[in-house]
Write a structure and sequence with these properties.
single chain, 145 residues, little secondary structure, 3-stranded antiparallel β-sheet, 6 strands
């Protein structure tokens, strides 16, 4: 009886140990691929724990993904890709005795800034007195009376 109970408990816990499950990968934005290790896994099945928050460093099993080129062929030359263009420009050197275009007219532009002229200020003596005396009558508001 104990053996049968132990066997039932063992058989009941084994599937829970392998319950990693699988995930169907659906991109949040259409047209933006989800790439894992050079494989586009959009609309594919990924099995195993994978992600930044898992803390596990094992490779997931991918069913239905497709390989992505590390350097896609775009049909144009982009210097940032670091590769040489497939062909050069077709430059035609003009003959030396050709008719030259008329020279461009001269152009000169000037930008400047200047302050407005200030009205003349009253002259301040070279040695002003140390104390300036205020009027004794208190001025227009009647202060100091």
């Amino acid at each position: 009886m104990r053996f049968a109970t132990a066997l039932v408990i063992l058989l009941g816990t084994v599937p829970a140990a392998f319950a990693g499950g699988f995930d169907l990968v659906i991109p949040a934005r259409p047209g933006v691929p989800i790439i894992i290790n050079g494989i586009d896994v959009s609309y594919a099945v990924v099995e195993g724990d994978y992600g930044l928050g898992k803390g596990v460093h094992r490779q997931p099993t991918i069913y239905g993904g497709r390989y992505v080129d590390s350097e896609p062929y775009v049909g144009h030359y982009y210097p940032s890709l670091g590769s040489q263009p497939g062909y050069g420009r077709m430059e035609i050197e003009p003959p030396a005795n050709r008719k030259l275009p008329k020279p461009a007219e001269s152009y000169h532009d000037y930008w400047g800034a200047q302050s407005m002229m200030q009205p003349p200020q009253p002259e301040v003596p070279m040695d002003p007195p140390a104390v300036i005396l205020a009027p004794q009558d208190g001025g227009p508001r009647g202060y100091g009376r």
